[in-house]
Amino acid sequence: MIPFILQYRYSPYSDFLGSKWKLLIMRNLLVRPWRFNELKNSLEGISQKVLTDSLRSMEEDGIITRTVYPEVPPRVEYALSGLGESMRPIISSMESWGKDYKKTLE
Fold first, then answer.
1. In a structure prediction context, what are the per-residue pLDDT tens digits for the chain, which is 106 residues long?
2. What is the pLDDT of residue 106?
3. Cross-strand pairs, 67
4. Of 1, 74, 75, 102, which has the fewest beta carbons less than 10 angstroms from its beta carbon?
5. Residues 6+ positions from 34 with CB-CB distance below 8 Å
6. Is 45 helix (H, G, I), strand (E, B) or coil?
7. Alpha helices by DSSP H, the chain
């Protein structure tokens, strides 16, 4: 039997894992909901366009939710959806691996 990862030319996670910004956005959202400018200020080097495109893509993919509060000025928060939360153990494993890998470089 051919493993799932080898069955398809396109894997459902390749776009996500191929984007450094999406992983960094995900890292932040694992902690708490964030507003747009909070995310932009915490992600050094990201442009407004790239952040906007990444958030829209993640929302379309069902990874995050976007909540608009009826206030003046409008307040928008981004948070992990249930699907995004289901990635917590995967991201945690990647974090553990990264810590171990970093130790091998020291």
1. 666 556 665 556 666 666 889 989 999 999 999 999 999 999 999 999 999 999 999 999 899 999 999 999 889 999 999 999 999 998 899 889 989 999 998 8
2. 85
3. 77
4. 1
5. 28, 42, 77, 78, 79
6. coil
7. 4-7, 14-17, 20-29, 36-42, 48-60, 82-85, 88-105
Whether residue 70 is preceded by a cis peptide bond, meaning omega within 30 degrees of 0, is: no
25: which residues sit within 8 A by CB, 6+ positions away? 39, 43, 51, 54, 55, 58, 64, 78
The answer to whether the pTM exceeds 0.85 is no
Burial class (CB in 10 A: 0-12, 13-18, 19+), 78: buried
How big is the CA angle at 94 (ends 38 and 34), to the nearest 5 degrees? 15
Distance CA 101, CA 94 (A): 10
